[in-house]
Amino acid sequence: MTCWKNIKAIAFDLDGTLIDSVPDLAAATRATLSDLDLPGCTEEQVRSWVGNGAQVLMSRALTHALAREVLQDELDNAMPKFMHHYQDNLQQHSQLYPCVKDILAQLTSLGFPLAIVTNKPYRFTIPLLEAFGISHHFSHILGGDSLARMKPDPMPLTHLLSHWQLMPDELLMVGDSKNDILAAKAAGITSIGLTYGYNYGEDIGLSDPDAVCEQFSEIMALVSSSLKATEQENV
Ligand SMILES: O=C(O)COP(=O)(O)O
Ligand SMILES: [Mg+2]
């Protein structure tokens, strides 16, 4: 049984959890394909390709456009173009999901240490968080290239556990993708799966997170049981 009352710190996924970033990822993907004189793609297709970082996104887009397996040098040629297009247009059309700013502020004022654990390259993560005015909430920020392995590997989460000196049952991962839930399970930590993000078109419930939430604001009710437990201990 999940013990919500033990939660002391929270790790958040970024794309599809805090920020709906697909419109700008799709624009950068399409601009890259256009540079290469390849057929474009839809935003919906990009939504189903996001989840394993920029390189895998571009690899999936090229595989689709070429209708065959992509060669390493084709990917190597495309990546700087994608990075350039995305860097210049990180938040033209991306948006924070409802209540994100408010809930992060509440969690911060309640004293939870918060982290970002994203597969997005680190160099895009910081400016995006800053652009939306939420970077100050996170005391630790890990991009997909910050460590040797990214989600679904547990490495970023075990890194956080040792950084914060927490037991696995004291850390919560909140994310929209099976990569978030698989990483959480492999690290032995609690997870919440959000239904509104990107999960390759699959139901996040199939990954069996400890709880499924349809709205970001619903995480407050689960996390607040840990506060009640702390209050009772302090009486
Ligand atoms: O960039 C991606 O592919 C996914 O990023 P996320 O881990 O924040 O969802
Ligand atoms: Mg995500």
TrEMBL record:
Pfam hit, one: HAD_2
Reaction(s) catalysed (UniProt annotation): 2-phosphoglycolate + H2O = glycolate + phosphate
Active site per database record: 13
GO terms, molecular function: metal ion binding; phosphoglycolate phosphatase activity
Binding residue positions for Mg(2+): 13, 15, 176
Top-level taxon of the source organism: Bacteria
Transmembrane regions listed in the UniProt entry: none
Gene Ontology cellular-component annotations: cytosol
Cofactor(s) the protein requires to work: Mg(2+)
UniProt-listed GO biological process terms: carbohydrate metabolic process; DNA repair; glycolate biosynthetic process
InterPro entries found in the cross-reference section: HAD-like_hydrolase_sf, HAD-like_sf, HAD-SF_hydro_IA, HAD_2, HAD_sf, PGP-like_dom2, PGPase_prok
NCBIfam families (alphabetical): HAD-SF-IA-v1, HAD-SF-IA-v3, PGP_bact, PRK13222.1-2
Described purpose of this protein according to its UniProt entry: Specifically catalyzes the dephosphorylation of 2-phosphoglycolate. Is involved in the dissimilation of the intracellular 2-phosphoglycolate formed during the DNA repair of 3'-phosphoglycolate ends, a major class of DNA lesions induced by oxidative stress.
Name recorded for this polypeptide: Phosphoglycolate phosphatase
Natural source organism: Shewanella psychrophila
